[in-house]
Amino acid sequence: MSKAVVMFSLIGACLLFTILGDRSACGSRGDAISKNPVERNDRLPAGIWGGDHIRAEVTDGGAEIEFDCAHGVIAEAIALNSKGGFDVPGKYAPEHGGPVRDDETSKAISVRYVGAMRDSKLSLTIINGDTKETIGTFTLTHGNDGRVMKCR
Q1: What is the domain range of residue 55?
Q2: Is 12 a domain residue?
Q3: How many C-beta atoms surround the C-beta of residue 119 within 10 A?
Q4: Nearest CA to 117 among 65, 64, 46?
Q5: pLDDT tens track for 91-143
Q6: Is 100 domain-assigned?
Q7: Looking at the 3D structure of the chain, how many domains does it have?
């Protein structure tokens, strides 16, 4: 048998084992591979979410949110419903430019943070808990630092 025939036989055998080998390691069992930043299907993925005039740092226990002239907090896990939406209570504190006085108290109000996640995008609306007025609506992207211009 010539060296060329042996070489082609070995190459063919290697290709055959590669093709017919354990394909499950490559995720080819028919499972869909999602590019969504989902860590758990029932919660908003942790990490930085940002957009125009907003930046949120989401953790397993809630979120801290920065706006141009305000800040907010969600003090509970942000659970998603079957459609990727959520409606959670939180606080929203308007800020102002200039120095903060020693005797100044926080003007934080109770709000609802209502949102929906699709792929790596999040639409978020902040609603005043007392008056039911919309404070603002934002679009955030997972992994984006956002563009916040603090009014200090």
Answers
A1: 47-142
A2: no
A3: 13
A4: 46
A5: 999 998 877 788 888 789 999 999 999 999 999 999 999 999 999 999 999 99
A6: yes
A7: 1
What is this structure's pTM? 0.71
27 assigned to some structural domain: no
Which helix (H) or strand (E) covers residue 110, if one does?
strand 109-118
Which two structure tokens, joined as six digits, stand for 54?
């907003």
Distance CA 79, CA 83 (A): 11
* Calpha distance 108→96 (Å, rounded): 13
d(CA 98, CA 151): 8
Q: Are 111 and 128 in contact (CB under 8 A)?
A: yes
What is the C-alpha to C-alpha distance for residues 25 and 21, in angstroms, rounded to an integer?
Answer: 9
Adjacent-strand bridge partners of 50: 55, 141
- Specify if 21 maps to a domain: no
Compute CA distances 36 → 16, 39, 126, whole Å.
34, 9, 24
- At 25, list the tokens: 């390691």
**What is the spatial distance between Cα 143 and Cα 13, in angstroms, rounded to a whole number?**
44
- Residue tagged 């790596």 (tokens): 120
Distance, CA of 145 to CA of 19 (rounded, Å): 42
